[in-house]
Every structure is written in structure tokens, then in C-alpha cells.
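Q: I have 226 residues here and want to know how they pack in 3D. Can you give me a structure?
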Amino acid sequence: MSDVTASKSVEWLQVELDSGASSVLLLDCRAHELYESSHIEGAISVAIPGLMLRRFKKGNIPIRTIIPNHEDKESFTRRCQTDTVVLYDESTVSWSDSGPPSSVLGLLLQKLRDDGCKAHYLEDEARSKQCGVLVHCLAGISRSVTVTVAYLMQRLNLSLNDAYDFVKRKKSNISPNFNFMGQLLDFERTLGLHSPCDNRSTGEEQLFFTTPTNHNVFQLDTLDST
């Protein structure tokens, strides 16, 4: 089974949700703290506590037992065999059914598909295709900056100070408002990133950012070039 058939795009999901009559069951595979911070409307949290993860890998417990909310558990049991199940997390770029799953999303996806469910994962298209994403707002100094800083914090395990300093080196006139900065501080605590030191990822994946050289030309940089 290929990655293409296992994935669904964000555009596909948006169309399904906007239709108002969608039969899509969304499963959020991130840590419960991230789910509580923000999630796609209607998604069910399926975070697996560490003590249960080993038992789940051995196939000793069904998926519904890891859903804490009774109403969500009933919804999952009722819909998982009939609806299109879409799983998402903060890190999965691709998935393959060859070899053991390496993430909670992979474990759940494999289990659901083995059980005959129409299960897919939500593809991070920009990262899987190694293309850029334009993040913008009206002035380009507050809302778009907040989103970019939050992404760097979550994706690269950067503290708020490190992520903010990195963006400021790329765009010197950034100025998120106090409310957004407060939300970023809360997000930092949720991620467990309290250290002011440089916590950048040591993985091999390259992320690229654009540095304005004048009003119309942008220079492509990697994080390591800063």
C-alpha cells in the first residue's frame, strides 16, 4: 500500500468539512496538552500514555480504550468502520506499511487499516514536497510573525527567545502584540521549552527561509546559515 493512497491532503479535508455533510472521523495523535491547546474542530484525542504504549504495540488493547472521553469513545466505536478516518500529528511527513511503525500515528494507522477501516493520515504537503509556504498578514509584523515563531518552537524545539531572535534576524521590524506574546509564552510551557539556550534540532532535515534583499527579491537561506 503506497503513501499516496494512505494520505489525504489539507485541501481535500477542507472541502469535506465545508460540505457540512462529511463522513470524516478526525483523530488527533498529538500529546494531550497540544490537543487541549488547539485542535481541528471535531477531532478526537487519541494520545497514548507512555505506560499504555508498550501494551498497545503488542496488540493487547483496542484503540477505543485509549480515548478518555466517554462521548468520544462512543463516537469512535460507532463511526470507525463506516466513516473515512483521518489521523494527524505534528511531525508525520509520509507513511509506509512496510516495516514497523515509528510513531503513534503510524501505530494507529496500521491498526485501523488492519481492522478494515478506511484510514488515512493528513499529509504535510509543504514538507513532503520540500516547497516553501508563504505566511502573511496585513502588515507582516504581528500575526504572521506569531504563527512563524510558534511553528519554529514546535517543529525545531526552539525556545521562544531562540525562535523570536531567529525571525528577527530575518526580518528586523517584527512586533507581535502583547496578547500574542502571552499566547506564545503559554505555548512554550505547553511544549516544555523553558530554557533560553539554543535548542535547535540536530536532525538532518533542512528547513528553508527567505530573507528580503530588497522590495522584490528574496534570498533563500537554510537555518544552519544563520
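Q: Anything worth noting?
A: Residues 197-202, 215-220 have pLDDT under 50 and may be disordered. Residues 38 and 125 are 20 Å apart (CA to CA).
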